[in-house]
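To the structural biology subgroup,

Please find below the input and predicted structure for ABC transporter permease, which we are adding to the shared reference set this quarter. The sequence is reproduced verbatim from the submission form. If anyone notices a discrepancy with their own records, reply to this email rather than editing the shared folder directly, so we keep one authoritative version.
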Amino acid sequence: MKPLLAVLWKDLRLFFGATGLIALLLPLVLLLALQAGAGDLMRQAYVEPFPIAIRDEDKTVMSRSLTNQIAEIALFSQVLRAEPGQSDTSLLEEGAAAVITIPKDFFYDMYTMENGAVKVLLNDEMPLEASLLRSVFLSVIQIIRADQSVGRAVFTFCYGPLDQEQEWELWHQTSVQLLQDALGRQQVFDQAVQATDYAAASGRSLFACALSLLCLFFPLTAVRSLSEERTLGVLPRYVAAGGRAWTFFASKFLAALLLTAPACAALLALFRPAGGLLVILTALLLFAGAFGVLLGLTAWAREGMAAQRRGNLYLLFSLVVGGALYPLELLPPAVQLLSRLTLPYYARRGVELAYAGGDVGALMGTLWPVLALGAVGAALALPALLRPVTRSAPAMPAIQNPPQQMEPAAARPGAGALLALTALKTRAMSGGWAGLTALLLTCALCGGVAAQALSGSGPSQLSVAAVPLEESDAALELLQRLEALEGVAVLRCATVQEGRAALSEGRAEGLLTIGSGYTAALETGGDLPLSYESAASAASAQAAREIIAGQASVQRARSRGLRDAAERLGRPLTTAEQSTLLARMDEEDQLLPPLYTVETASGAPLPADPMAPNALGCGALVVLFTLFTWGAWTARADARRVEARLKSLPGALLLSYGSDALSLCLIGLLAGAVCLLPGGWPAPLEWEALLCYVPCVAGLTLALTRCALSGRMDVLAPFLALITCLVGGCFGSLESFSPLLRTLSRLTPQGLALAGGRGSVSCLFLLLLAAALFLWLGRPRAHTIT
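Predicted structure (tokenized):
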């Protein structure tokens, strides 16, 4: 036990010596940045709010009340009131998805069942929005038609031809039922679920993202030193002192676990996710899988920085491809398959399963691929960990070379020598051509993912997952009614867990659960066991509820008609009479005058958000992630010693510091360009922003390594890059930021680059000034050679 505790204490000291307490504080800062800058990351995968227009020709209290109710629907970002003399075409050209005209005497005609038709003019430039509005409008109209047709069918079934007094009774009863159904249509849902699903879904998404990042960060910091410790002979000396090899490797796992546990505990305390022990088990499984994967990636590295580069590239790949930054449903199928190699994908699945009330067996059935990935990684690492230790230290001979070997190149300061040294350092920073190739392939993949996610190809219809917990004709009829609506797709699921999985994966915007006892509730007039849960930031949630409530209200009206007829006849209806009455309801519905007409016309498409995230945001993340990781090479002890020896030679500052800066700029430009190109040739402003942004980040990297963080840059790169990119607005619309955060975003290099890419010359100038300032702060100073 003592040898294990000794190496465990050694690993903890290595961690705090490399990163200090800042690594434990950065997760808390990341949570704040996620809530500020990633609150609407998933919005682009769902139907966005859109404007409509209303022309009120009735001009009554009822028509004004209807207009105000429509304005309260979250799906409609704005309700334009048509002015006298203003044409419908002009309203469509202002960006309205539709123009709804309420005719004169509409409500009086509806009371007497004469039914004046509402005119709906749809914008054919906004097909999804137009079809969705039509479905919402149709659901409300169907409530009116159902109450009218059911009322007339019941009266004629019970009384035959109606006299004037019976007509008045019919009108009065139908209007009362219509008012109750129209105002109480949302009561068919579980109101507790409706009030909490927005915040809960958004919180689960952020929690899963943060949990996966923590489970990757701390194991990486623990395993990165394995190769160097083996090379330096730490393991043989430990075994010679009485320790066992397995305890040496086990200490890495325990150290990473001890470091991850406090951060995860703070995460649990902050979000308080549902699921309790299942969430904790999810975190343990994710941690174990991540440790194995990272062990396989880093065990064959020759030094700690190479191991960190590999781990950081996998972390960047996981964030972009795994659905943490871009919704999976917007990505090509091939990329969605790749997401199954990442932690964020399984973190979301596990958190959603815990929220759904699953058990341990279901959780293991969902997360077993994580353990399989970890086992494969550990198996790949085993030969490297058990291979004989060679005594050739890779970097020491170069450090001990005599100064005169550097004099010929240094004595001829000029463009050739500078470029030669820049190329040499670029290759060394990247770990050779293989490392540079791996970097560029990762950047290209990230750029392709961002280009696809931000291409504007949003959903083509409103997708709803449906789980019928009872197999009945009434439940089947409700699903068939929903499937028949334009702009609505129903994904039938066998279990609630399957439905929530579809919700978490982005395959559906909401989950409709038809509870047991649905048929009995229709027959008795009780509360319907329906619940609808929306995905995070799904602005279509209220519209989906309107559509579902409309169809359920139609069913409820028909069942109520059967009960009403039995009460009027004073006896239960036979099966044949029920069939006859239902058929008469259908006949009366066909005889009703139309309640609306639909036409289409050309108009303006939905305007794009000028502050929405674009591909340059992903490029900014890739550049910062890369340079913060690669820039740690300039803080190596042997690099500083070479710098000190060159100081007395002619042109030393240009050769040493200039080649450092040029190497970082070259790597940053390559990474940024490769990231942007999959989305097409960037606009000139985007090239200008990239050319100004890269020197700024390169200077910032050199300043931080020189002034404060020294060799910690690559370790802290994931947190530092993600935090500043979130605050800078790389993955969320600045319109959703508070004024303070919008101002703060302009203080980050990413925020300035994004603004420059949108045409702000002043922001590009500020980037160049910041680059000059950072390069001056990072300039070499006097060294003490030890």
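Summary notes: DSSP finds 33 helices and nine strands in the chain. Residues 190-196, 392-412 have pLDDT under 50 and may be disordered.

Regards,
Lab coordination
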